Amino acid sequence: MIHHPAAQYFGKIILVFAAVVLLWLSPASTVQGAVSFRPACPADSPPAASWAVLWFPRESDFAVAAGRELLARSDFPAALCYLSLAEPYRQQDPVFQSDLGNALWETGKSDQAIARWEQALALDPTLDGTLNRLWKGYVQTRQWTKAEDAIGRWLVRHGDDSEATYTLALIRAARDPGSALELLDSLNPAPPTLEKKVRELATVIRSAIALRVPEYIFARTGEELLSLGEPALAEEALRRAIERNPNYGEAYALLGSAQEGAGENPEDSYRRGVALAPKSALACMMYGSWMHRNGNLTGARWWLLQAWAATPGDWNIASELAQVDFTLGNIGDAEGWVIQAMTAHPKEADAWIALARFYIENDYHIEENGIPAAREAVILAPTNDRALDILGLGWFEAGDLSTAERFFLRALEQNPDSAGTHLHLGMCLQEEGRIAEAKPELESALRLDPSGPVGKQASGMLAKY
Length: 465
Description:
mainly alpha, Serine Threonine Protein Phosphatase 5, Tetratricopeptide repeat, globular
């Protein structure tokens, strides 16, 4: 029997259609001999290739495309899910390994992420973006030796990267302070955001080295790293100080502060500090301040009084004692401490800052005493970011939001890395109803103080958006 050509053509279409329907209805385990799985990669909205991944599980291009789409959307758990489906087929693909590392990192799997980035660079050493992420990953996970090596490789290609140079200098300062000086000197001129930090760290290291006492060199460098907001590296330096002198009480106290800043338990270090140096104002104050933060007001007051006896008139000690006495309800004694400090140092901006903070942070006689004290601090030190910030906070508490904002902005011009000022500016903008502008300020506060009290307050405010 002879069939009409058109009939043959339509017959083929029907067969193709039937095959597609059967494919659609068949379980995924029957396609290409795949192991049975379900597309358990939930996303806010499915990526374009999600159905293709379901029906062609061994065609890794579909899973990779879905994963990369989700990476671009910052939907990291779903991205990791899809990229993991493609992993068995992409072992030798360096770009894929890098993408997988990015997804792992963003989902908190730092060790696995670093292993993927290392594998990607072993396959293709020219991957600049991967090398950049790798050296930063090493820093965040405290793999200092690997970080030094990776940053060194990065700087061979990008010698003008001041951030990388500064980070390498910080690592060397913690591990071998003298070796950091050449790098710090090379940052001349340093970018405005780093200029003050570079200058002060270099000055501290040179002054400490001049005394030729190894444990002091590490302890003083660790203290400066702590003030620069680098608690993990400060801890590295301070441990080296203690290795050289196991009876160095002040180094233990500073180590406690570094551990606290890094989110670790500092109690043993603080206790060891005062046991070894019971007459050290630094060790006693740090232990007393820690007790204060943890609600032990009686113990805090006792140790702070020991610190005051060692260094009477110190405004830092006075400020802590004032806060403890204020909390205990001893208002007259509390005010007396900061007035004593200011009277002993009438030309010191820090003494006036301590006085202003007492009134403003406790919402006590803000306009009568707090703002005038903060104004005096600004007159004495017009570029001191802490003075500008506390004056801004005073006006904020007094309800003058436009003046407060102006001083917060001036403070950030002097110190863009002040978590507290970013928080205060965010609070001010939020109070003015400028939510879109407030949010990045709060995010900056959280980024700069992720585990501290400022960051926690910022996180709580962001959670409401």
